[in-house]
What does this fold into?
Amino acid sequence: MANNEPSAIRFKLFFLFLALVVPLQLFAQKLSVTGTIKDDSNLPLTGATVIEKGTTNGTISDMEGNFTLIVDPGDTLSVSMIGFAPQEIVPDGAGAVIVILQEELVALEEVVVVGYGTVKKKDITTSVSTVSVEDLELRPMISAATAIQGKAAGVNVFQPTGEPGAGLVVRVRGNTSINASNDPLYVVDGVPMSEINFLAPNDIESIQILKDASSAAIYGSRASNGVVLITTHAGARGRAKINFNSSFGINHVVRQMESLNAADYKELMDELGAATIPDGLTDVTDWFDETYRQGRTQNYQLSFANSTDKMKYYVSGGMIDEVGIIDVAYYKRYNLRANFEDQVLPWFKFSSNIAYSDYSNNGIISGTGSNRAGVILSVINTPTYAPIWDPDNPGQYYNNFYGAQVTTPSENMSRTEDNRNSNNRLVGSLSGELTLSPALKYQPMLSIDRVYNHSTSFLDPLKTSWGRTNYGNASDNRSLSTILVFDNILTWDKSFDKHNFNAVAGTSWTASDWSMEYMTASHFLDSSVKTLNGGNKVEQWSGTTASHWAIMSFLGRVAYHYNSKYYFTANFRADGSSKLAPGKKWGYFPSFSAAWRISAEPFMEQLTWIQDLKLRGGWGQTGNQSGINDYAYLQMYGISRQNWWETGKTNALPTLYPANMKNVDLTWETTTQTNVGIDLSVFKGRLTFMADAYYKYTTDLLMDVPLPSTASVSSITRNEGEMSNRGIEFTVNSKNYTGKFSWDTDFNISFNRNRVEMFTLQNIYYFGQTSEATSETVVRMTPGEPLGMFWGYVSEGVDPETGDLLFKDVNNDGKINLSDKTYIGDPNPTFTYGMTNYLSYRGFTLTVFLQGSQGNDIYNASRMETEGMYDAKNQSTAVLDRWRRPGQETYMPRATIAKDNLVASTRFIEDGSYLRLKTLTLSYNFSGAVLRKLGINRIQPYFTAQNLLTFTGYTGFDPEVNQYSGSAVVQGIDWGTYPHSKSYIIGLNIEF
It folds into this structure.
């Protein structure tokens, strides 16, 4: 044993040596690289990405541009940052490295999504707007359409009501239709749809808007109003990422309207004689405080993303909850999304995008008078002496107004407090990409857009006077809509020396099925059971209905450019629609565009300050059949049910009656558009400028034309007229300062002129009925004028002797009658604009977004109810200036039951121009080595104020309203519309 001890000792020492030396050798194989990243002005760059090439090992430069990264000796580091050319270095370990990144024109190299494909921004020959989405995480939004507002020239976006969950109206280069749809086509990840309320804004990666026909014609019949292409996030190459975004905000009404107190109200009633108000009444209720409250918004979004050589994914989920500034109004949405892409084989790539959302809302009754449950107007119209509850009838709202037909805001809100509108929406797609050859790819895609809607209502049988009249009432409506789209697309890309070709050909099949069940019950015992089984009487009009439509399409595109200098693109699409008459179902929509990159010519070489100068021009046609009845060309019949419980009708059958007049000539509404434009980029991309001029002419306008009273039906859907839009638009993007302090500005402005050119059946149409006091229409449509023009008398002020309004004798015949009515206002803006400023310094970022409209008029019909002084409703404090005695000079007419002062006139026309500080956001980005050691890339708290300031001369709640929502023919009418709110939001973004 003794002889073996030295060997054993040597063996143990050898392993001890290995244990000590080998780790040191392994450690020595790693290299700690430190360095600084700067721009070509020697200023440090914060947030530059440094990655060990071929791995996910990476870091981000700090506030001073410094970084540290452990790598293997000899490995290559890839350094990149948006706005700069990427650079690769091989560190030798001799000391700190300094990396100088050169600015590049990334905007020109940016890939832009177009119809059924992508193209580099520098190669675009048509009018396409790219919407900046870099600040979406710091602008908590309910609707994804908000991301477009004020961000794209030629695209007017407004929210006609401030009700929670209310959709936005998007108009691309004006209204092109009357009764058919004026909404753009939305294409989300290749899936076409008519609205995007389901979409979580945080999921959006890019937004492009195809504005002219030469860009949109490949979508044919669904593109006459422009196309909004939205791409959602996919996994980012380089590292896995987890992002959590949370925010909480408070909302409150922007402006308060004052109503008369009890004493002033009695004085008005004594003067008017509309109600006998006893003496001694005092102010009991502040109806503004009882109606409006502090709303709140909560938003939580969580996402996971990663990408490898073969597979990438993006999974997200979130919840948004908005409680309105008016009691009972709310909106809540839950959303889930899963995007996957897998390179299954070298020649086959598979993708799937699935989004599910569950959203519900409730609102109030608005756009009507207070005696018809209009909440907004009843705040002013309800006398302040009234309590909320009736002391003589517990559980009932107060309604003793001494003969006045008034219901309180509390009672009007109660009319809808148990209503609920719920939607479950599934949007999904499965697609593949088969590489048949290096130049040829085949891309099939099957998508589904399925929406289940469930709307319920309940009217308490005791609390409200309307409920007591109807013994309570409840409804249950359920509908299911399924739209399937199957696309087959072949794409061919080939380059020969300086010649570059791209060709697209394919088919698209769309089919829609819709069904609905509806039932109403009344005569409820009480409110303990709010479902239909609690009612004793099921109404006769309960039933079911269904409809179907389909479109078959063939499409193609050929694009060619020579040496990135001369460009030509041609599109063609043929659509066949089931909605149109036999022999008229097919529409054919061609387009052509060309461009010349002048900056690529030899004679421009000396002008080194110009990086890009391109002229564009295009012509094309698009069609429209959206918005009309699914069977518009057919003879339809209504069903009249018989009261089977009546004597002799036990086995009675329903009767039929004609519901419309058939039209065997019903065909496509067609818009022809010509566009010319210029793109300019100078000073190394520090300043870019785009300008477009366009002319749109729509023929065969689809309209529901009213028929004479002697006809057996009330209307016919037909191709009735023609309309034009012409305009110019400008976009300027500038990098005012770069370096530690940076300041970028995006500005756009748009001018559009709309005009009705002709009608074929009749020349004058009237729309826009407002107050029940006059039942008068205030909008007149006729050839030679824009849509929506206000029609009425010209008010020349108050007659000091009588207190009545004086009206202008337009035709100079010595008397005032209907012949003196004329156009008194135009709701169409002269121009709209938006400007966003991005300022950043050492981790701080300030974003200031301004948006405005100039030259549009508003018909303030609300003032007919709050300043009309024609019945016993309370009025606003503006009527304290009313005429009371002969010789008095004032702008406010006298109080009188006669309604001559309420006729449609310039009295109610107001300038609706406004400039709004739409969003102000301040954020700070925490990042650095300590956070990276914890696995955190950034922590970014932020504060956002929305609708912070509005500069306007409009006296109503808000100039961004329309009682008739997105109607093309009736615009800019404010009649008790739910007001917008001002919001203050705090939020936090965390990225792992």
In short: DSSP finds ten helices and 52 strands in the chain. The chain has a mean pLDDT of 88. The first helix runs from residue 5 to 28.
